[in-house]
Amino acid sequence: MNSPVEQFTIKTIYELNFIGIDVSFTNASLFMILSILGSVCFLYLGSKKQALVPGRLQSLVEMSYEFVASMVKENAGKGSQAYFPFIFTLFMFILFGNLLGMIPYSYTFTSQIAVTFTLAAIIFVGVTIIAILKHGFKFFTYFFPSGVPIGLAPLLIPIEIISYFIRPISLSVRLFANMLAGHTMMKVFAGLVIMMGSAGGILKAGAVLPLIAVIGLTGLEFLVAALQAYVFSILTCMYLHDAIHLH
Fold this sequence. Notes:
This protein has one domain. It has a two-stranded antiparallel sheet. A two-stranded antiparallel ribbon has the order 2-3. It is mainly alpha-helical. It has 8 helices and 4 strands; from the N terminus they run ββββαααααααα. The longest helix has 38 residues, at 208-245.
């Protein structure tokens, strides 16, 4: 039986080097492209008719749009609507990446810390730039809010700085760990089904239990796939709120 973590191995499809840097096209690259194409097709096919009475696909597209628009408005606050296209793109990219990873023999690129950390780093740098451009030097008051006694500065400022710079780590690890753990558990229980099913006697009958667990985990993983896209996006909205409004 193959190792449960073998499914996360990055495999090179086409080797490519650019000025000595390995930029090969891999299975992760392939499924990132498929995630983009899948979300684009979903949005295009669902919105091209623009029917007064929407069908199922158009309803899903409109619900997705309204869901993210509401999330941005409620969590990022006033003046955040200009950033809606980015949040919506981020949400759809992660959502389709997670869902594609549920297809047998596919690849879940959100289970790679390099991918999730890159996304989180882009968000962190972008939000910081927005905050500095909007508030100038006032941005640094984020680390020591007005009204706080000056005597707390030696304690509060280091805590605020650490909590601010740890954002991309916590944001990336949350998505990576959830997808990694979920798919690993599914593979472990699926392996037990095969192992016990190929055995004889009472062990063969006992394969029903891990099979039920696999079915339950599969349903749970679909929920986690959508939930993690939501969590990643809503935390981005919260960071954007801090950048626009400071505290």
